[in-house]
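Re: folding output
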Amino acid sequence: DQAYDSGPAANYKVFVTGNITSAYSDTEGNLAAGGNVNLTGYAVASHIPGNPSQSPNPARIVAGGTVTATNGGVGAGQNGAIYAGSTSLSGFTATGGVFTQNQVNFAAAQVEYQNLSTYWGSLAANGTTSVLYGALFLTGTTNVLNIFTVNGSDLTNTNTVNINVPTGATVLVNVLGTGQIFQNGQVFLTGTDPTHVMYNLFQANVANLLGSKNPNGSIMAPWAHISGGYGAMNGQLIAQSFNGNTEFHNFLFAGTLPNPPSNSNTTVPEPAPLVLMCAALLGLALSKPKARPLAR
């Protein structure tokens, strides 16, 4: 399999296919949303020098809908750009200009990441997982890719996460369930760094970054609505939507993860209500009485 290259989110610190709402915080990297972006007192791409003569601008906001922003700006020196369906700006500076959004196909990106997350979630664990005295221990011995399967409740209920793998190895943490919370506590990394850690929330439709427990890694949660507190995150966020005040530090994922095989039958599961409705309609069609010929 070819190695995962981050796809459409490669140059974005926060990438959601729905809406983003945040206030009085910042993301050190770029920001992209398939829906609307609502920002107050916010700096985007604060560690990326903008370049108005370059297309696309290295420092940017991309939105499929409307960017509504008050007080703040885009890019180091506020010389970044905005690519959106429309804008409503007040005291929010992007001297690189405002352009029509043509940078990202968000519908295609959503399908790509949902399929990718499902595939990663099917991979067998090769590392050991244990919980002891309020701490979660993830220990791997593989030089390239260490895979762990973790109950969402263990991630939520432990104060400390200790990840220990060989030097330079990539870590994939497949998290079961939904409603996971990164609460107060710490994540310690031995042998790796935040650019080589990926949490795959492949079953989650909601998750929370509410406390001081910085994940020290990226989060893949393409079905999930993410809530954030006033903590920080060292890693990329790929999700359905984000609402909160988390400060996003510019650690882009650089690990080695597989893409689904080219002949894979991996597909995005249909929501249960839709499946039931289709089955009901099929049943009605099959049970419909045949029309009788007219009497002569």
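--- second protein (sequence, then structure) ---
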Amino acid sequence: ATVPSIVDIMVSTAPNTYTVSGLADGIYYVRGYSDFNSDFKQDRRQEPSGAHGGIARPFDLYMTQGGSLTGINLKVCNRIPLAAGGSVTAAISSTGCEALDRGPGYYTRIYTFEVGYGAGKVPPGSQVTVYANNITMNDPYLYLVGPSGDVATRDYDSGGSMNPRIQYTVTAPGVYLIEPTSYASGMTGSLNVGFDVTGGFGGLISGTLGYSGAMTGASIVQIFETLDTYAWPVMTSSTTVSGLTIPFQISGLRDGLFYLKAFKDVNGNGTRDSFEPYGVYGGTTAVQFTVSGGVT
């Protein structure tokens, strides 16, 4: 989760040391990241990060009676975005990042995907299938970490041949972490890691309608599978907002190929009549667009 920090400390190189003094009694957490774009906030999808605790969830640190805590170390690990339907070869090495959600002596590489609406994101409510298949590392183990930093779920061998596979419905927006590791400690090697969107699709279409004429009435946006004259719309959105540009949004769209049409419903009958202003996405000729894996 995103919460304001109490103290920010910049270090120029790694490894390096840090010190924080003057803390009141209480519970604290330590997290670090590489600020690639110098905006003083972490891009959880791709900026390297680490915590004193799990991969994303820090341990509680208790400060009492003005005492001191030492050895509160953390390692910043790369985060590699994955696209739905894609996979990579993950080289798991003892010199890489520790799989802290598994425990000491386990290693990992961290991959990410984002749940939300927009290009490249997985819509909330989608079912994802995440896998880590053995190439040269036997007995893989797999964690899926949610946007809160807590482990959402884990698996050992549901994919068959002692390979893990996670099927999970993503409901909370934010960045999810894929944390592949091993069943036994000390193991290294290569894994094929990826994820697919396998159900619960909910694509979202949004944009603006432009109209500068004098006619009044609701603005109707319709999504079609074909351009046939008598085709019935798959989904429809209506707004009475007026102006030169009118925003619209349609959510819950399944996968497929579609066209977008709009008209001004001057007489309020819900059907486009020949005298009513009309337009299509694409200009003068309708252009088809694709929703795949809930991503538009």
